[in-house]
Amino acid sequence: MSEPILEISGLTKVYRGGLKALDNVDLTIRKGEIFALLGPNGAGKTTLIGSVCGLVRPTSGRIAAFGHDMARDWRHARARIGLVPQELSTDMFEPVIRAVSYSRGLFGLPPDKARIEEILKSLSLWEKRDERIMALSGGMKRRVLIAKALSHEPDLLFLDEPTAGVDVELRKGMWAIIDEMRARGVTIILTTHYIEEAEEMADRVGIINNGRIIKVDEKAAMMAQLGRTEAHIALAQPIAALPAAIAHFPVEIEDGGSSLCYRGGDGTGKGKAEVAELTKALTRAGIDYSGIETRESSLEDIFVSLLGEKEAAA
Prior knowledge:
Elements: E1 4-14, E2 20-30, E3 34-38, H1 45-53, E4 60-65, E5 68-69, H2 74-78, E6 81-84, H3 96-106, H4 113-122, H5 138-150, E7 156-160, H6 168-183, E8 187-191, H7 195-201, E9 204-209, E10 212-218, H8 219-226, E11 229-235, E12 251-254, E13 259-264, H9 270-284, E14 289-296, H10 299-313
Parallel strand pairs: 3-8, 3-9, 6-7, 7-8
Antiparallel strand pairs: 1-2, 1-4, 4-5, 9-10, 11-13, 11-14, 12-13
Helix pairs in contact: 3-5
Domain ABC transporter: 6-235
Pfam families: ABC_tran
InterPro entries: AAA+_ATPase, ABC_transporter-like_ATP-bd, ABC_transporter-like_CS, ABC_transporter_ATP-binding, P-loop_NTPase
């Protein structure tokens, strides 16, 4: 297991008026991983990022980055952290290359034309380097935000909704860029409303709701533990009740008896095997079927299910 690069313990943020945006959050981020933080609007994602990046002052708790306590030695740690914020407000009247170069200087690094050129080329911004940011498309403006965050060569990069408002092709391009950053050893924490992004890229996933971390796990382990198989079996002839031969399967009659719905498994392949056994039992019982549709849970299904369980328990 790789060393921790960020350690958060007991982090709480209460705003004036009593709103508790973060509630005793514990979280450890490992060096070199992509960590996806998922949660509905208002869950506390941006407040958590702001607390680490020095934009929000926590009410209590401890944050340590690269071994430095952020409350006592924030300058050393902050210089190694990059942030791509949600908002597109940036130096709209500045040419791209000047804005990115200026961001590098803010962290006390000397000018490095070759490095800035490398960053802009990697983000397909080199041809736009002399254009004012205000003249760029929304997707290109977001790439400028990433370039600015990378200009001081951070070891830990926060991406707060990095693909919000961009089309599918640009989103896929962003995924490739994030993959390249990870290959260079950058640790990445991203928040996203597009859960397929987390499913595509993340090593681990954390789910936050009402300021609390509900669950953190390896993506594959989470999907194995909480994933399910769902199968819809179209029957050749309607049935009024489940035959005894299949009553022990997790199956229900639907569509007035014309189909069966199986929901089971545990994300490890058990569900598919059980669906195969179910179809054999149907055949032995003399029940014909005309088609089967099977699907596995996505990370989004698991996310929605976990939030639903927490809301029901509240």
